[in-house]
Amino acid sequence: HVQLVESGGGSVQAGGSLRLSCAASGYTDCMAWFRQAPGKELEWVSSISGDGSNTVYTDSVKGRFTISRDNAKNTVSLQMTSLKSEDAALYYCTAGGGNHWGQGTQVTVS
Question: 91 near 20, Cβ under 8 Å?
Fold first, then answer.
């Protein structure tokens, strides 16, 4: 049974930083972050391979966001810097190609 629990969301001023974490019990394969802003479609943000050696990002966050994982602690993180108003959204951690989702953590950028 895969369980995903996100944390680390909050409110930050534009230009600031936040670090999201996802505690992933029972899963060690590819994982990803998605986000959804009010009134907008769900958007893929970044993915990381099971061993952390491969990472990919949507163009809008390249150079600002960094995805990483610590398999010893079963966590996947998303370090977000230089945040913009358009980054504000509910961020979800996913696993298994979208078969498993966390409850989401809110990011607000003012």
Answer: yes
